[in-house]
Inverse folding.
């Protein structure tokens, strides 16, 4: 069980860190747009910023799904071993 938990938590933490880093990149775009609402409105850059935010959130969502799958597999393996 210890081996399953050690390797499982390593994989879960790896994907969690990746998801957090990718989410932080996307959040910076959103924070910048919110902070400069007048400039964004004046130049009509809302659609371009929204597309950029969604493009940066894609890897974060993928890593979040991988983290969840690894966590579920780890839990199932622990119950199987027990």
């Amino acid at each position: 069980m210890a081996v399953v938990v050690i390797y499982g938590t390593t994989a879960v933490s790896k994907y969690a860190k990746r998801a957090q880093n990718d989410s932080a990149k996307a959040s910076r775009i959103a924070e910048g747009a919110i902070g400069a609402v007048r400039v964004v409105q004046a130049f009509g850059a809302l659609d371009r910023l929204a597309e950029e935010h969604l493009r940066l959130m894609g890897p974060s969502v993928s890593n979040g799904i991988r983290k969840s799958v690894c966590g579920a597999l780890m839990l199932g393996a622990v119950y199987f071993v027990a």
User: Anything to note?
Assistant: Helices lie at 2-35, 37-43, 46-81. The mean pLDDT is 92.
